[in-house]
Queue: 2 jobs
Job 1
Amino acid sequence: MKIMRVVKTLVSTNRIDTMGHRPLLVVQEKEGSAPSVAVDAVGCVPGDWVICVGSSAARDAAGAKDYPSDLTIVGIIDHWAP
Amino acid sequence: MKIMRVVKTLVSTNRIDTMGHRPLLVVQEKEGSAPSVAVDAVGCVPGDWVICVGSSAARDAAGAKDYPSDLTIVGIIDHWAP
Amino acid sequence: MKIMRVVKTLVSTNRIDTMGHRPLLVVQEKEGSAPSVAVDAVGCVPGDWVICVGSSAARDAAGAKDYPSDLTIVGIIDHWAP
Amino acid sequence: MKIMRVVKTLVSTNRIDTMGHRPLLVVQEKEGSAPSVAVDAVGCVPGDWVICVGSSAARDAAGAKDYPSDLTIVGIIDHWAP
Amino acid sequence: MKIMRVVKTLVSTNRIDTMGHRPLLVVQEKEGSAPSVAVDAVGCVPGDWVICVGSSAARDAAGAKDYPSDLTIVGIIDHWAP
């Protein structure tokens, strides 16, 4: 899993039906690195340092075997000093 | 998921049957970065900033469990300033 | 999917049985980049620019769910100017 | 699989239920490289050099097909001089 | 698949049961690049140039659907001049 910081929410009105209404968040490994999009499964806010799971595990973690995610936030880190 | 920009459509006359007639698009993370090919599941046009899902999730997102995709466009981002 | 160029065929006499007699090709993203090995599912020749699918989709694309491939050529690009 | 060194344990009080109480460890390939988070399936301590498996294999290795891991420690290396 | 060179065998006494007694080998893409660990499914020796398969295909290639591998050697290359 990767350690990433939540930057902000992402709005995508035109998306496939199977994504449902799960919140999508922009995350990045560190200031200046390429942003990724993660599905939020724990309820976090911008600034949180979180654990993101990828690969096929991201789908179950997002709540269903056929959920179209390859990056899902599965935990908020209690204390993290990057 | 990755945030990518749609560059153009890609024509491949000689391809395997299971790809069907789904549109294939050239996408890239930013100007000058290596281009990738994504299957379009939402209907987007060149210039759009989109959400691309990879891993095994790309297959279901493309419409069928056995669709041969490892990168599928699942949403168009409403506003994105890279 | 990645856009790659076919360099040459690869001979591996000692290989696991499940690979069968499918042709293996050396491919690379551009001159000088690290070579990869892909299973040919469309019938291409050195010099062709092709679409390569990875992840679990590479297995089905190679013809069977248990085929041991993580990179399979699924289409030849009609025109490509890198 | 990757060869990584265990740095320390990671505490995440707010995490999804399916992660259970498995220990989460911060690991890295070498001093200064980006840290990752791995699920410990063998019982190791900070300073150990370990074998980490990724992809879908990380899930079974963590103990269950639906465990949300994409990086699991599957062995401690007896002697390793990086 | 990747083209890698076998460096040496790796000993891990403390490992999870499902790994069994399959030989683990240290492999690398070229002199000086980061070493990886691969499961040997063909019987190779240090110095061999081999084809390594990753992703979920590495599991079947290692002999069983639930074998915890994400990198398995599936063939020895007859002639390779890097």
Note: Chain B has one domain: 2-76.
Job 2
Amino acid sequence: MKLVCAQSDLSSNLSLVSRAVPSRPTHPVLANVLLQADAETNQVSLTGFDLSLGIRTSFNADVWQGGAIALPAKLLVDITSRLPEGEITLDDESATDSTTGEGLIVTLTPKTGQYQLRAMGSEDFPELPLIEDNTAIYLTATALIEGLRGSLFATSGDETKQVLTGVHLTVKQDTLEFAATDGHRLAVVETTNERPLEDNEQQLEVTVPARALRELERMLAHNAASEEPIALYLDQGQVIFAWQNQRLSSRTLEGQYPAYRQLIPRQFERQVTVERRQFLSTLERIAVLADQKNNIVKLTIDSAAQELTLSCEAQEMGSGRESMTAEIAGEDIEIAFNVKYLMEGLKALPSAEIQMHINQNLSPVIFTPLGGLKMTYLAMPVQLRS
Amino acid sequence: MKLVCAQSDLSSNLSLVSRAVPSRPTHPVLANVLLQADAETNQVSLTGFDLSLGIRTSFNADVWQGGAIALPAKLLVDITSRLPEGEITLDDESATDSTTGEGLIVTLTPKTGQYQLRAMGSEDFPELPLIEDNTAIYLTATALIEGLRGSLFATSGDETKQVLTGVHLTVKQDTLEFAATDGHRLAVVETTNERPLEDNEQQLEVTVPARALRELERMLAHNAASEEPIALYLDQGQVIFAWQNQRLSSRTLEGQYPAYRQLIPRQFERQVTVERRQFLSTLERIAVLADQKNNIVKLTIDSAAQELTLSCEAQEMGSGRESMTAEIAGEDIEIAFNVKYLMEGLKALPSAEIQMHINQNLSPVIFTPLGGLKMTYLAMPVQLRS
């Protein structure tokens, strides 16, 4: 294997795929990045894989001699990212007659010097899952990013919660639904498919680990300007996202996802419309006091004054109270929340104004954006200690 | 006490002084910021003090009624920094008839709401050290920043190393010398006083804790454009830096500082002049490999080729070698360093080109900037394992 490529291509692609390289690999080869060079197409592909999350990208290079090799990910990323712009030669021809000892050696030759790194054979590197059937759903990058942004934050960070550590994707005729819950709150986003499913295609549900989707979100953020749709291949056990020269695959999470739709009430006794940013920044101040106690913030809804008041009593430290105008329909009520769940939901809601839909002070409250994306955020109120 | 001030003034000054508030106070009052309001001058001063480091700043406000009170630093910083721009009223008149219970309460009233915080009496707050004698040394902010930047990095982070955790300041006729060493390397910077000492004034030496000087560096960074000189009041036991509306005081460190001058050789057998940034960026790449082993980098000085080569062998991982042109006087030599000490010194040296002054491969090596600030950096070579 011998190739010449640009430092910027090698470095940026390495940094993408190395996100899938485990920091504590269960097998030594998983600490590597698989490099495959094709002399016919002059394409180099890089793969990182932790047996669950896999990332593969490819870029153009002068491939003098094709081949494949597994290279130590961390060392290669750290050295390559520090090299100046310019051409780099990668070469494993001198593998056996190197003075450094037996085994595979790859030589990295930038303009300024030479690095020799111990490598492993490509045959030890596990295969990425294949796309077996060819029917894909297509989403724009923007729609996919919106779906992820509106759901990922509500997943559980507790690994013992299994399916709750993932986002549940439901493919429907012409929409894709993203849902996430950690047992305390629920976020649901519906985005539009680029092309509707054909009649004979099956509706499908999978739960994808949040970790893989966070990486997907990062990769798409660099790519958001692209018009090319993202292809989603969903299968029991595997999901693959593919676009341009990049693809990300992930195992799905096993187990029944909660029937979340039935948690969302359809009728409400009260409705409050409020400016989202003002609500959020006020909560951030009240949270300073709530932090000192049990994280509980009280919302007082005053229909006559058309005013929403946030307050917190942290007896040993002090108390705080702020009010803002709101459009209120329904009777006055006092209702309390964990301030963290309110803030996280408000951050994710994508509109300038939001609506709270309330029944009683201990029944689920629904937050929706006013216009734009179809998103539903459900938060459970908590008991107010008096 | 009652005053009205701008949110931006209160917030920025609180964030400055709160740097001196200990996170784990030995006495409850030290978790507070002392606020003093003067109705005659319409000045508000804030003080944070951990019994070693003290920071005091002042700003203009409408003081309706003068007074002093100790306010909970963290809560006040966190709330104030999140408030929108605008006027804030601070008030402790309602202290005793508050419904929240007995004890001091301060009321913070921004436009949007009201916060009540439990406060403490100002009489419990310890006094900052006074400036007893009036003779000061004056430095420009730029000179002081240069002195700190060129020395602070070389202090020891190990609290058991006592005086080595500080920077040693020596006041001379018309210069101020900054010195720092952790036992492995030494940095010395000489800056010019704004006004020379008068003949009858005494030369003085003190060692100031790095922690206090790092805070000073932060404060000055916001203030570097100012032409007004900084006054230094040095005393056995205390040092005070004062400028405009701000002052920082610190206890000095007790104990004899090492006689570092005698460590610096005066004669050298070899001299190497090299471009600093190239040297540093090459070291950063070689350090990736050195990190894998014992952090040792080898410098090979080739007089005939006028070339400096950096290399590292990390046998299990690989090896690296890079060369750069250098102006070399003296015979060829191989010499090894801890890569961290080389990089930190090169980062702090303030010139485009630097000179290495070398004798033998185990005697101290001196690094100096070519032109500009008077700085000396000494690093001890290490044994090359063969």
Note: DSSP finds six helices and 27 strands in chain A.
